[in-house]
Design a protein that fits this description.
It is built from 10 helices and 13 strands. The chain has a 5-stranded mixed β-sheet with strand order 1-7-6-4-5, sandwiched between helices. It is globular and about 50 Å long. The two termini are 16 Å apart. The protein binds oxa(dethia)-CoA. The site of oxa(dethia)-CoA has 20 residues, from helix 2, helix 6 and helix 7.
Length: 322
């Protein structure tokens, strides 16, 4: 294994989900779909959906749980990163709304790297540690993709769920390697928001629902994740036998299975919560990490691969030693 030059570790994790659970059978009452189709094509059986709650409250709940898990007070956090695609407020940023709720006064920043946001946030955090600019960093990934879908479109609206996941980081050596990729292609997965008309711009009648070329995104996800994992194993000098678990972005169980088959790894190395959560964008991997950790799955020293992919098209993969 190569020398580890990374300098942060996980101090705590947390997550929060909306109360309302929507089953496939319930979706079949409002869309031309079925439990059989959704289960067979995606592995999803139900998802948590925001109703009257606010995403920032969910994000603050997840952050509070991660802080409690880390044994830190909000005042001990000196940098805060939020990963988010769409919130109620274009401004102020989600991190500002969450900071207000938690009583945080440190610098904070929102990033939008779609589903890959957690790994991109880890990379930014790592840069701050390398620069000696932070001691305790909070990352919150909070997304509400059910509010991005056109609910007349069965090909997207059955796939998503809402939620928030959080980690607190401190100085240490948990991170072994990170690989980020970008393959700009806005036609595969996008949503356009309506701008305010002005005296100089009449506004456009745009379709505001999430648009996705499902099959092509599927292939991108399998190809990029498989290649990124292989590249990181080569870079770190780790073998497959060294990896305890792969936490893959929960977009479709068939995507995870295809990556697993490509890597020729056993099923038990790929924990999954897609059946109960659907795809919660950047919150997905973060929630899975928290659930696995709280269930006692990880042992000290376990080497874990985190990998996520989505709109952009962006992907991010990290090798972490627990
Ligand atoms: O977070 C990262 C971004 N997202 C992803 O990674 C998602 C990647 N893509 C996928 O997971 C899959 O491509 C989907 C789940 C979106 C679609 O699965 P698929 O096996 O690629 O199905 P398809 O799009 O090829 O559609 C097959 C059929 C079509 O009918 P016809 O044309 O064969 O008659 C669709 O109209 O299934 C139909 N269909 C549905 N039927 C019932 C599409 N959505 C539904 C539905 N219920 N919800």
């Amino acid at each position: 294994m190569q020398d580890n030059t990374f300098c942060m570790r996980f101090l705590g994790t947390g997550s929060a989900l909306p109360e309302r659970v929507v089953t496939n059978d319930e979706l079949a009452t409002i869309l031309d779909t079925s439990d059989k189709w959704i289960t067979q094509r995606t592995g999803i059986r139900s998802r948590h959906v925001l109703t009257d709650e606010h995403l920032e409250d969910l994000a603050a709940l997840a952050a509070g749980r991660a802080l409690e898990d880390a044994g830190l007070d909000p005042g001990e956090i000196d940098y805060f990163i939020c990963s988010n695609v769409v919130d109620d407020y274009p401004t102020p940023s989600l991190c500002s709304l969450v900071s207000e709720r938690l009583g945080l006064t440190c610098p904070c920043i929102d990033i939008n790297c779609a589903c890959a946001g957690f790994v991109y946030a880890l990379d930014i955090a790592e840069c701050r540690y390398e620069a000696g600019k932070a001691r305790n960093i909070l990352i919150v990934c909070a997304d509400a993709p059910t509010r991005m879908c056109d609910w007349r479109d069965r090909s997207t609206s059955v796939l998503f769920g809402d939620g928030a996941g959080a980690v607190v980081l401190g100085p240490g050596d948990n991170i072994r390697a990170i690989k980020l990729t970008s393959k700009p292609d806005m036609q595969k997965l996008w949503q356009r928001s309506r701008q305010m008309p002005t005296p100089f711009y009449k506004g456009e009648d745009v379709d505001t629902g999430l648009q996705m070329a499902g099959g092509e995104v599927f292939r991108y996800a399998v190809d990029t994740c498989s290649a990124d994992v292989q590249a990181l194993l080569a870079e770190t000098g780790l073998g497959k036998e060294d990896i305890s678990y792969y936490l893959i972005h929960q977009a479709n169980q068939r995507i995870t299975d295809a990556i697993r088959r490509f890597l020729d790894e056993p099923e038990w190395k790929f924990p999954s919560n897609i059946s109960d959560h659907g795809n919660s964008s950047s919150a997905s991997c973060t929630i899975l990490l928290d659930e696995c950790r709280r269930s006692g799955l990880f042992e000290r020293g376990d080497i874990i691969v985190l990998s996520a992919f989505g709109a952009g098209l962006l992907s991010g993969t990290a090798v972490v030693q627990w």
